[in-house]
What we know:
Blueprint: H1 7-11, H2 15-25, H3 30-38, H4 44-51, H5 87-96, H6 107-114, H7 131-144, H8 149-157, H9 178-195, H10 199-213, H11 244-258, H12 267-275, E1 283-284, E2 304-305, H13 306-320
Antiparallel strand pairs: 1-2
Helix pairs in contact: 2-3, 2-13, 5-7, 7-8, 7-9, 9-10, 9-11, 11-13
InterPro entries: Terpenoid_cyclase/PrenylTrfase (IPR008930)
Protein name: Squalene cyclase
Organism: Nonomuraea thailandensis
Amino acid sequence: MVTEALIPWLRDSDPALRWQVERDLLHEPPEVWEATRARVATEGFGARLLALQDPDGQWAGGAFFPAGFDFATVDGAQDNTQPWTATTWTLNSLREWGLDAAALRGTAELLDKNCRWEYEDLPYWDGEVDCCINAWTVENGLWLGAPVTGIVDWFVEHRLPDGGWNCEWIEGSTRSSFHSTLNSLKGLLAYDVATGGTDATRAARRGGEEYLLRRGLLRRLSTGEPVAPWVGRFAYPFRWFYSVLNAADYFRRAALFDGVPPDPRMAEAIELVRAARQPDGTWLQGRTLPGAVWFEVDVPEGEPSKWLTLSGTRVLDWWDARPVSGP
């Protein structure tokens, strides 16, 4: 539960964050948080990003990378030079901030006409071969009314034998990735929420969730050791990056949609989230992924983050409200 002392601090924020505080932490009536959410299109972060849209519907002239990006600097691997200004990253932010899709009326059609993936010049709404990219395309397409059923079917077909997904499947990987699996699950959940889903999408989502839950959201199945130190590193924006906080917030949304209680196998991960909470009830910003941004939306590393405090508090509120059986 958010402390009384933090409420003014959290309320004094951009509408993109404030409406979520009002809905998820303060439990204001819908007419309050919906009015705040409507302001995302006209002020603050949301309005600033809307003003940066190109006439052809894109941002920074590209699908995943800005126009003219020097791919030689990527060197074939996850690299610190990834910019966060192109179309997909900008749509992700606007959608996550709760922008009404009506503010982007016509954008789906413009992107269908003008935007191609950097990978083999594929059409934007057809997706490509990267799980994370395809998941975001599903989420953004559902939001903007673009046809993305083909990409949803792709997820069902490309789930790996161990239950999850890996963006490196195209390079021959047969072992799932925490990062890729979480992002893929977000896309499938968005589809199930928007459409009711199908037997196939629900089964794929359950399988991907089970992949993470069997590992307690943080451990290797083979050795029981933590998969990597990054599971407990929290920073906003999350981007593509996995953490137990990012995963727990997904499982919170999925459980609320499915009408089920929290899975007890998350307990250790939840305690990592709780341990990061400062005595004043805040969470501190971690080291963010480097790369060019349109503008900063959170505080520097080491300072109290309103975004992380929102995520951490609502995860703990959800977890702590679960029914607990007696001895």
